[in-house]
Amino acid sequence: MIELQGLTKTYGDKTVVSDISLRVERGEFSVLIGPSGCGKSTTLRMINRLIPLTSGRILLGDEDVTRLPAEQLRRRIGYAIQSIGLFPHWTVADNIAVVPNLLKWPSARIASRVDELLDLFHLDAGEFRDKYPHQLSGGQAQRVGVARALAADPEVLLMDEPFGAVDPLTREVLQNEMRRVHEQTGTTVIFVTHDMDEALKLASRIALLDAGRLVQYDRPIELLTAPAEAFVSDFIGKADLGLKLLSRRWVHQYQQAATTSGDAPHHWETDAQGHPTCLHGGRPTADVPPRVAVTDDWTATPGMTMKEALSRMVWYRVGVLPVIDDAGRLIGEVTLEGVMGRQP
Amino acid sequence: MNHDEHDGPRRIANRVLATLLVASLAGAVLLPFAAMAPNRLVSGESVSLLTALRPWQTLGLAALAGALALACLVRPLGERRGARLTLVAAPLALLLTLYGLGDYAQRALTDASPAARVSQGAAFWVLVFCTSLMIVDAFQRLGSSLWLRSGYGLLLVAAVAALFATGTFNALSILREYFNIEDAFVDQFVTHLTLVGLALAPTLAIGLPLGLLAHRRPATRGVLFSVLNVFQTIPSIALFALLVAPLSALGDAVPWLGALGVAGIGAAPAILALILYSLLPIVRNTQAGFAGVDPATREAARGMGMTRQQILWRVEVPLALPVILSGLRIVTVQAIGLTVVAALIGAGGLGAFIFQGLGQYAIDLVLLGAVPTIALAVIADFLMQILVAVSRPAGAR
What we know:
The complex is a heterodimer of chains A (344) and B (397). Chain A is α/β, with parallel strands linked by helices and 344 residues long. Chain A has helices at residues 40-47, 70-74, 92-96, 98-102, 107-120, 125-128, 138-150, 168-185, 196-202, 220-225, 230-236, 241-246, 251-254, 306-316, 336-340; strands spanning 2-11, 14-24, 29-33, 55-60, 63-64, 77-81, 156-160, 188-193, 205-210, 213-218, 267-270, 276-280, 291-293, 320-324, 330-335. In chain A, the strands form 4 sheets. In chain A, strands 6-7-8-3-9-10 form a 6-stranded mixed beta sheet, with helices on both faces. Chain A has a 4-stranded antiparallel beta sheet with strand order 2-1-4-5, with helices on one face. Chain B is an all-alpha fold. Chain B is 76% helix and 3% strand. A 3-stranded antiparallel beta sheet of chain B has the order 2-1-3.
């Protein structure tokens, strides 16, 4: 748990961050978001005191760490930044081992921790341990950067737009990986971004800042459905609010039993193993054939967002998608009526 | 009719080598190879290469010239194999030229008067210079590693040293000058190195912290660099002269400094001037080295909880070291050269022979001061290059 109490930063008579208080529970993934210059990065950098605070208090667990020497504090807090900042003269293993080394862990424990982290990020330890940063791709370097930040099991992990500089494809992969790593490690994360889709994808709580002020700190769904003031809905953007909402909804929440009986307006054919092969009916217009073969592209999985499921329905012009499990067996379906018929 | 016919097919793969070869051949034929004089103070009678060398030596040089001519052509060897052939033929030509000169001196002096002298002529210098450049050029074309170059250089130096050790050159005038003043030469050589060392140590002690200061406090840069620049613009001889008055006053006024050797002439002004000259490259390169460290790396180091000292020693210094050492390389070579001038204010060093020789109009004595200085500078430069290469962190390209 980490708590900020009345965090304030002024430069001369200019207030950059004004009286921000928020509490991030253990294991929470909290995202600070807002327009450029809203003070989100300054707030983050005040937490590990890269920027000294003008006033306010920071509690880590129940301990007031506001007066703790900055270096000691930083060794308890992970830090990953957009420009990564790997040490170019050290190997991947040495880079990851920085904080454990500063904390004087025994070398055997450091070595096994390094391998464990490379493993966590699906980087082959044998291949990557002894590489130098310039031998890594952008995505690999950022994984190593996050691994380094996690190395000493920090009480909080601070991330400052870590995926802002990579290409969209890599960003998507890294975001998925970050979700998985967060679920696996249960680390408390505070993450700065200006990308609402990224925030919606990752956050368990979102803090929206504007001009140094905390406007709303809530669960993503609350931010979307119960904005505290006009600025919130303006910032999120009204145009695709419905889709944003669906990006926080999962297929398993909308899943219903699949109809296989021939009497229903639409029904599935399956093979002997239970894989869906064919859909009868279920197409909104008459100009398409009544029976259509199921392809991999228009199936849904329980962990998929409803935004993506809806996108597939639109693209393939079907009002219903089969929901399949890991083995590809039919376990249910989601329908357009189901999406429409429910409060999002 | 081919439209690019007027260009003709390319025949020469290595124009540099071809030019050097033509220059050496022209020099060998047109210029005197050696000079024979009745005593050390008069200029001698020119001796051509053909007269000076034994037939087998001339034939050997001709054969090596043929090989080098082959090495510059497109066919049959081409550029890379040509360069490898050059690396064999050029040093052999160099060694044969050296040996030929020593051999000639021995033969020429057997029935001459004891005062007679044989010294090297222009053709000799042209051959030495051109063959050395051929080797340098070949290494550049091959892009060989520093280690290969070091090993090769070491072998070549060893071969030349062997020629010296076996007394090949003992009859030459420059060696005769050396034997006349053997003890003094060793003394001045050591003095030369000592002056360079005594200047570089304080330069580093002052320059490195100043460079770090210039990096951390950009406001100091303007003043610091303009002051250091002023020293660089003063001609060396003027700076030595300017220091004489204040230092002699200081030596007189503070007795213990005087006892330490602080005086208007001698080592004190020489070392001080060398320091003033060396500071700018060291300070500037130190600052540039630190400035070259990626700010993201520094930010990450701070964020990880490294202290200022840890960031300096574990991150900034290792990353800045190659640039700092490049600065040291510049000032080392510069100081070896400048120390020659310091002989004028009584500091000693190899410059002493140069000015002595100029005074007596004994050119071989001048060379006895100049050639070792040049060799020293070249060797120091090479050693520093190796140091720079070693200091480059494995991960940084």
